[in-house]
Every structure is written in structure tokens, then in C-alpha cells.
Amino acid sequence: MLDEKHDAPRDLIQAISDKNIYSWGRIGDHKVVLTSLPAGVYGTVSAAVTAQQLLSTFPQIRVGLLVGIGAAIPSASGSLDIRLGDVVVSQPDGQSGGVVQYDLEKVEDGGRFTRKGTLNMPPEALLKALSRLQAHHESNPSRIVEFTEGMLERNPFMAQSKPGRPSYQYQGAEYDRLFEATYTHPSRSDSCTNCEWEKEVTRAKRETTEPAIFYGTIASGNLLVRDVATREAIAQIAGDNCICIEMEAAGLMNNFPCLVIRGICDYADSHKNDRWQRYAAATAAAYAKEFLEIVPAAHLSNTPTALSVLSKTIGSIANDVRSVQKDVKSIFSFEKDKSRRELYN
Question: Using an 8 Å Cβ cutoff, are 89 and 261 in contact?
Fold first, then answer.
């Protein structure tokens, strides 16, 4: 999706602690650096470590885009018609900053789960650009199809399907099947070829294969969700506006100012497979490209660096630790004096 690919800067000195591997280039008016999580390693901690290592080498980076795949949370009523290949973007809704960590909660009386703590929202410069792009899409189509088709023209190999490696092309509506919540996928089948058609949720045929874009809350945690009951429990924790589940964003939001963009590759149920992952990654990347092209470079120049945000977070944590230490010392001193009084009385 890069407009230009760049070589590594000649004067680059990568921090000893930084194990990331980078690519460089330009999108619109912005110079960008790209990295990814280690192969086969997922979760919020891995994402946080990757971001912190990046900042140790690039301290002037101001914002980030977390781009990849996620699972949709279909609404039981069918009011949210989300399909595989669609794009979900994190957006604050007043109750959350756009991302909710679902595995950080407390259990109250009656076994009811409630969220504990909140995560930061994206920086103002990104939210203003998000509003601008949404307004633009009210009267103009998204450029996702344009960018994905251009990508495949420049890289024909990505359009080819190989055994065990689906292509980056749209996979076909016949392979986008949403099943009833109570219907479990046969345990010994890798695909849904033998799944019962009568158990499939009937949905209206879309007039176009162009991906739809949804804005709302993204639930993030360390579980690989392949179960409808778990999916619905997470949705209840995250709130009514939650439309996507993923595994990295919660590790970044408080330490790395970013916007989360996810292409939908499954429905977080037992029918989950890898067929749509590459296409979903492509649609998310295409949206990220379109988004960056409308972000004014001048707006980002006035945004604090990500490292300064991280430093403030660390400073706040340090203050909290010192406060706790002070309270503990006070309690210890009180108990010690109490014991002395009891001894001499």
C-alpha cells in the first residue's frame, strides 16, 4: 500500500533492545515505518513490547495505526449487517476510548462481569481526520477497492491461490456463511463444506462486494475466540457498541497513541478458518492508506511524540506506586504502634 518504498536511513542506529524488523516508505505526505509482531506470537503483551521497542529506535514518532485482522460480533437482531472483508475502525463513544480490554474486569454479586479501568482514546489529530473521512464517504465511495485492485496489479503473485495459502482477493459470498449461534462446526472438518445449510442465518444479498466500513468499539484481550458463548460474553462486557474482537490493541492504547483498523476475517465462532485472513488484512491496509492520505501533516507536527505520552504514563504509574508505598508504610507504622501499646498496657 506504500506510495513509495524507501531504503533504511543511512544514519539509522537501531537500539540494542529493539528486535523489530522494519520497512520504510511514504503514504501521501507522511513518511511511515512498518513493523509487525513476531510470527506466531499474539496478545496484548507482545503488541506492547513491539511498540516500546519501536519507540526506542524512533523516538520522534507521534502516532501509529494498528492494522490487521479481527473477528466480527454479529448482532442477534441482524441490525448490524457485517460481513467478512468489511473494515472496523475504533471510535470513542462516550463510554470508551474505542478499545475495551475485556479480560480486565471484576465479578460482582450474582456472577455479573463489569469492566475495570478504561483505555485512552486516539489523539485528537487522528479523530479529526476520522471525522473528515466519514463526512467524505457520505457523498463519495471509499477507495478501498481501488487500492486493493492496484495492489494486486502491481503484485500478481498476491492474486494467486496456493494450497494452504488463499489469495488476497475477495473470497466470494458463497464462502461467507454465518451460522446460528447454537450450531457447532463439525470437529473433524477444516472447512464449512459439510455444514448444514438450514443452520445458516439468512441474510440479504449485497448489491456490491465493496467492503463496508463500521465505526465503534473494539474488544481486545488475550483469548483466541472460537466460541459463540464466549463471543457474546465479551460483547456484554464491552458494551452495546462493540462490533469486533481482536488480540493486540489493549496492549497499546495507554502507551502508544494510535487508531485501530481491523479487517473482518471470521465471526469468532467454531466455524472460524483462515480463508479470509489475507483479504481482510488487505482491506484494512487499504483503509489505512486512504485514512493517512487525508491526515494533514501539519496537524501531526503539533501532536506530542508517542514517547512523551509513554513517559507520562510511566510517571503516573511511578506516582501511584509511591503513593501505595506510603500507604503501606503508614499502615505498618500504625500496626507497630498498636502492638507496642497493647504490650505495655
Answer: yes
Compute and round to an integer the Cα radius of gyration of the chain.
23
User: In angstroms, rounded to a whole number, what is the distance separating the alpha carbons of residues 119 and 140?
Assistant: 32
Residue 31 is assigned to a structural domain of this protein: no
The domain total for the chain is 2
Cα 120 off chain centre by: 13
User: What pTM was estimated for this model as a whole?
Assistant: 0.86
Q: What is the pLDDT along the chain (345 residues), one digit of tens a residue?
A: 999 999 999 999 999 999 999 999 999 999 999 999 999 898 999 999 999 999 999 999 999 999 999 999 987 666 789 999 999 999 998 778 999 999 875 544 454 555 555 788 999 999 999 999 999 999 999 999 999 999 999 999 999 998 889 999 999 999 998 888 887 887 766 778 778 888 888 899 999 999 999 999 999 999 888 888 899 889 888 888 899 999 999 999 988 999 999 999 999 988 888 999 999 999 999 999 999 999 988 888 888 888 887 665 544 444 444 555 565 666 666 556 656 666 666
* Contact by Cβ (8 Å): 247, 43: yes
Q: Label residue 318 exposed, middle or buried (CB < 10 Å: 0-12, 13-18, 19+).
A: exposed
Range of the domain at 319: 304-345
> Do residues 220 and 313 both lie within one domain?
no
